[in-house]
Design brief:
By secondary structure, the protein is an alpha/beta fold. It folds into 2 domains: about 35-115 and about 215-320, D-Maltodextrin-Binding Protein, domain 2; about 120-210, D-Maltodextrin-Binding Protein, domain 2. It has 16 helices and 12 strands. Strand 7 (about 135-140), helix 6 and strand 8 (about 165-170) form a beta-alpha-beta unit. The longest helix has 20 residues, at about 230-250. The radius of gyration is 23 Å and the shape is globular. The termini are far apart. The structure holds zinc ion (ZN).
Length: about 325
């Protein structure tokens, strides 16, 4: 009799504590509170994803309700495919790729920026203005990129169009060599590949991105909407730490550089130069700047019908960060 009552009590406790839903818990309700959810975020080894590297390093120190797992990719198309297929929960990625995925019906939300500005137009010694690029080859990593939009703006400002230059898509690590060997006359790409040429004296900066597009967007932190909906508390905690990591990144101190060097290979003078160009301040994506991005994407024929700001951007997480 005593045994039956005990079993009944145990069953009632299990049902009310909800632990019958969880295979991991052992019957103690407090275990559920401490269950750690893994959040998988895709990235490319560039300085533009620096807040993620810092969050990952600091998250190893503090106890959290989530575990961050950074998943490294070698190219944007591979990263986008994994995100779109749900193999990762989110990514730090070119915002144009995310806009396009959303336009195609993948339910993604931009929850923060990766950075602001931080790109340069690098050219060979004989190029002194955008007009000098007429008839020359110019490299970008992908049509769906801020680098392509910066090229579009630079040409437009000089009364030129895409047809005036020979645009080639190259993998970013190949661009410095292509410039120094004279195969291209200029390029625009994520860092540290621009700084590599400039620091080595093999190229010069024709424009910094803010001179072409003030506060230009480039990489966004994107999460799958199903992940946000099913893991609100985890998503909130992840973004809180991400914002803190952005503030730390902006200090650009020795600790930041040492963390960065764990994730990407760059000589210290290359990294120093890259960090001079980029900003990790205020990573909230504002409506006005999204609309500027959407306008440029339509102008450059990258998108016919960009998603509305309210459909694509979810600031509810970043707005809860105190
Ligand atoms: Zn970027």
């Amino acid at each position: 009799m005593y045994k039956k009552v005990l079993i009944l009590v145990v069953i009632i406790v299990m049902v009310f504590s909800g632990c019958s839903n969880s295979a991991k818990t052992s019957g103690d309700a407090s275990n559920q509170q401490s269950e750690v959810k893994t959040i998988k975020i895709a990235y490319l080894p560039i300085t533009h994803a620096l807040p993620l590297y810092i969050e990952n390093e600091l998250a190893n120190i503090d106890s959290k309700n989530f575990k961050l797992e950074l998943v490294k990719f070698g190219s944007w198309p591979e990263l986008a495919e994994a995100l779109n297929a749900g193999k990762v929960d989110g990514a730090s990625m070119l915002i144009e790729l995310a806009v396009k995925a959303k336009e195609k019906g993948i339910d993604l939300k931009a929850v923060a920026l990766g950075h602001r500005d931080g790109n340069v137009v690098v050219v060979s010694e004989d190029i002194n203005s955008a007009a000098d690029l007429k008839g020359k080859s110019f490299a970008i990593p992908s049509k769906l990129s801020t680098h392509n939009l910066l090229l579009h703006i630079m040409l437009k400002n000089s009364g030129l169009s895409y047809s005036d230059v020979n645009i080639v898509e190259l993998p970013p690590p190949e661009m410095p060599a292509a410039l120094s060997e004279g195969r291209i006359s200029g390029y625009c790409v994520a860092e540290p590949f621009g700084a590599q040429s400039v620091a080595a004296g093999k190229g010069k900066t024709l424009f910094e991105s803010h001179e072409l597009w003030e506060g230009s967007l480039c990489c966004g932190l994107v999460l799958r909407n199903d992940f946000i909906q099913n893991n609100q508390a985890v998503a909130e905690a992840f973004i809180k730490e991400y914002v803190n990591a952005g503030l730390k990144a902006e200090q650009k101190d020795e600790e930041v550089k040492s963390i960065t060097s764990k994730y990407l290979k760059a000589e210290s003078k290359v990294l120093d130069l890259s960090l001079q160009w980029i900003s990790y301040e205020n990573l909230r994506l504002e409506e006005e700047e999204y609309n500027a991005l959407a306008k440029y994407m339509v102008e450059a024929e990258l998108s016919e019908n960009p998603p509305k700001y309210s459909d694509f951007v979810d600031n509810s997480l970043i707005d809860r960060v105190k």
